[in-house]
Amino acid sequence: MGRKFHILDVFTDQTYEGNQLAVVEDADGLTSEQMLAITREFGFSETVFLQSSDNPTAAARVRIFTPSSEIPFAGHPTIGTAFLLGSLKAKAQDGGSDVLLVLDEEIGPVRCAVSISSGKASYAEFDVPVHPKLIEDVPEVDLVADALGVDIQDIGFENHKLISAEIGIRFVYVPLTNLSLVRKVSPNFAYWGDAFSKADPVGVYVYCRGGERADSGFHARMFAPDFGIPEDAATGAAAVGFSRVIEAFEIDAQNKFETIIEQGFEMGRPSLLKLEVEFQSKEIKLVRLGGHAVLVANGELI
User: Fold this and answer.
1) For residue 169, what are the contacts with CB-CB under 8 A and spacing of at least 6?
2) CA within 20 to 30 Å of 228's CA: 70, 73, 154, 255, which one?
3) Which domains does the chain have, with CATH numbers?
4) If you ran DSSP here, which 8-state letter would residue 261 be given?
5) Catalytic positions, written as ranges
6) Could you say which DSSP state residue 132 is in?
7) What pTM, to 2 d.p., does this model score?
8) What distances in angstroms separate CA 187 from CA 145, 153, 190, one per listed residue?
9) What is the pLDDT of residues 113-139, one digit of tens each?
10) Per-residue pLDDT tens for 260-298?
11) Which of 25, 10, 93 is nearest to 61 (CA)?
């Protein structure tokens, strides 16, 4: 008997937008090599495999693969998996109330909440079990400019400057002066190693203030060729790490910061990620990420 799989579009409420995700059920018997091969067959930026968990409170153990390797945490797989399991539970209960569940990920137990509307899942969010770590060492600005195909003077706006943070995966955050420049970014992978080889395998998150939509706080793009992802439509882990950008450049006296980050517009896969950060004495106390998702297809591996 084959294993069931589901395909979802995440960080959108419209089919064929957002970031694509495959979730494979009953993956206990699969080896890591088989999971990587299946991930490459789907061809999405990430695929999730659900296994039995030793944590009695967890709905499942969640293993996440990119086309090149397994990773300890990612945002759109977490949102998509929570949305799927919430949908299945709501269907089994013939609707009902919102669903709370825990996903057992390598980064730790991730608490998720799934909103149920008219008997169906409509939105999911999660609290990050560990806070992103700020990395002191950042790449040289001129090398980053060469790798992204921009001028040095294009990097930075207001008080925002180049920083790096890690949440299972390391990201370099590159502020650009305006939306037009972010749209025009054209990575030159011939220079990628010179810019980023001193770091661990890295995602490069390019952003500016504002966006295509009036309610967006920031517009972003993310490039991660080391993970087999030339460009990603919606990067939840990078949005979580963006909380360090908020901490460094945005907070003043407020204890809570909320924003919508838009991503994937240049790829024809518009995505909206809601980031909430709570502070205590100007230090991060809580990071929460949320978004919509839609189920696109169900199938079976043979």
Assistant:
1) 71, 72, 73, 74, 201, 202, 203, 227, 237
2) 154
3) 3-130+291-301 (3.10.310.10), 133-287 (3.10.310.10)
4) E
5) 46
6) P
7) 0.94
8) 9, 17, 9
9) 999 988 888 999 999 999 999 998 899
10) 999 999 999 999 999 999 998 888 999 999 999 999 999
11) 25
